[in-house]
């Protein structure tokens, strides 16, 4: 068991002034089977989670003194750990790195096995926006050398170093003066390079090596997990989109309805401040909200003349059929079948299938109800021309808060008026 004592623990500013090993204090937290820490004060559960996330990859038994000059490193790490989306993780990582190393720019390069080069994934600073499409050669660049050697490199006079890959500077009209690069690992494989350029006040030092290496070890697993998650998620989304398109094609009246509802729902979700994982759920819920139409006979779904009362009841059952189908898929969140079940409910209880009222309808149900009607009325259908969006917004506004949620209608209005 490795004992760690943290002194002067401060979540808001400097993360750790001292991390010492070996002296026991009054409070202890088990980080892993090998590491136990002793902070000098009792921590809240949020602080403990944050600390665990931060320390989980530190397994060496040397004294580590990391002085983070600025930034809220624990908060940043907590943010990184709570996000699955690769794009967000990379951006947060790059931001933190640039601040911690007091540098003009920072980049994350990931190894492209097909071309045997490194590609920029996220960049910042003066060269950002110019270099993303460049293939950085492994054999003639500082990042490549770091990747090959599997160790941190500092070059404090980049322009005179033969390994400096000048194409990035030329393309960005930027002058790289100094650079620090460290490899990113996943298990035993090197997966990329983390680098910072042009330290603002000075040259890169041994202390910077400790910071960048600690950071690399903290984020390597996270990066790879996010990438795996992203690949898997895009495959699953592709399948869901194919199902949604098949549903739309079966209904002669609504060819791109599910896709439209999904696109607009995501915009509304963003406007309402939802986080990434909630937005992903909303996207799937929107794409599949009409999946129950699979169980409605063609002659009723596509009947050109007026429906009888019985036929209308059958059409209405697509909500129940959809919810049942989706609730049988274990890995889907319960919000998704709820969206299918409730997207025709109204806050005053005049909707279907269960005449639910406000307080009984889920947030997804409320959002999809608004977007479903907006898209249905503004789209061209075989039996009608598209209605102007102003007219549809007026109808929705007149019906809130009676039938629709005012906040959602307000967000919709903002999104379609951009
Ligand atoms: Fe529907």
UniProtKB/TrEMBL annotation:
Name of the protein in question: HD-GYP domain-containing protein
Residue intervals of the HD-GYP domain: 232-418
Domain of life: Bacteria
Alphabetical list of Gene3D superfamilies matching this protein: 3.30.450.40, Hypothetical protein af1432 (1.10.3210.10)
CDD domains documented for this protein: HDc (cd00077)
SMART domains xrefs: GAF (SM00065), HDc (SM00471)
PANTHER family found in the cross-reference section: CYCLIC DI-GMP PHOSPHODIESTERASE PA4108, CYCLIC DI-GMP PHOSPHODIESTERASE PA4108-RELATED
Species whose genome carries this gene: Marinitoga aeolica
UniProt domain HD: residue ranges: 254-377
């Amino acid at each position: 068991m490795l004992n760690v004592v943290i002194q002067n623990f401060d979540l808001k500013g400097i993360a750790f002034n001292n991390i010492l090993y070996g002296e026991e204090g009054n409070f202890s937290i088990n980080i892993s089977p090998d590491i136990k820490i002793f902070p000098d004060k009792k921590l809240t559960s949020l602080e403990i989670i944050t600390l665990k996330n931060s320390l989980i990859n530190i397994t060496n038994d040397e004294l580590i003194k990391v002085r983070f000059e600025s930034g809220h490193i624990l908060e940043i790490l907590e943010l990184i750990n709570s996000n699955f989306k690769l794009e967000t993780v990379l951006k947060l990582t790059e931001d933190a790195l640039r601040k911690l190393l007091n540098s003009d720019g920072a980049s994350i390069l990931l190894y492209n096995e097909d071309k045997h080069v490194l590609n920029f994934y996220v960049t910042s600073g003066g060269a950002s926006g110019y270099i993303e499409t460049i293939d950085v050669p492994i054999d003639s660049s500082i990042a490549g050398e770091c990747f090959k050697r599997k160790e941190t490199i500092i070059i404090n006079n980049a322009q005179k170093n033969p390994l400096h890959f000048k194409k990035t500077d030329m393309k960005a009209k930027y002058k790289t003066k100094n650079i620090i690069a460290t490899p990113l690992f996943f298990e035993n494989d090197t997966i990329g390079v983390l680098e910072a350029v042009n330290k603002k006040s000075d040259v890169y030092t041994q202390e910077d090596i400790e910071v960048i290496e600690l950071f690399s070890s903290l984020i390597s697993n996270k990066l790879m997990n996010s990438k795996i998650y992203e690949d898997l998620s895009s495959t699953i989304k592709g399948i869901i989109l194919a199902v949604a398109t098949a549903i739309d094609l079966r209904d002669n009246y609504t060819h791109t309805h599910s896709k439209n509802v999904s696109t607009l729902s995501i915009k509304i979700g963003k406007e309402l401040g939802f986080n990434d994982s909630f937005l992903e759920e909303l996207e799937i819920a929107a794409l599949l909200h009409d999946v129950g139409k699979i169980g409605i006979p063609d002659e009723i779904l596509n009947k050109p003349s007026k429906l009888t009362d019985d036929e209308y009841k059958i059409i209405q059952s697509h909500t129940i059929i959809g919810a049942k189908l989706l609730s049988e898929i274990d890995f889907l969140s319960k919000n998704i079948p709820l969206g299918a079940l409730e997207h025709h409910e109204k806050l005053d209880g005049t909707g279907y299938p269960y005449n639910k009222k406000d307080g009984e309808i889920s947030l997804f149900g409320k959002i999809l109800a608004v977007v479903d009607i907006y898209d249905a009325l503004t789209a061209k259908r075989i039996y009608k021309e598209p209605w102007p969006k102003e007219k549809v917004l007026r109808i929705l506004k007149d019906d809130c808060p009676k039938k629709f949620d005012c906040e959602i209608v307000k967000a919709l209005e903002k999104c379609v008026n951009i």
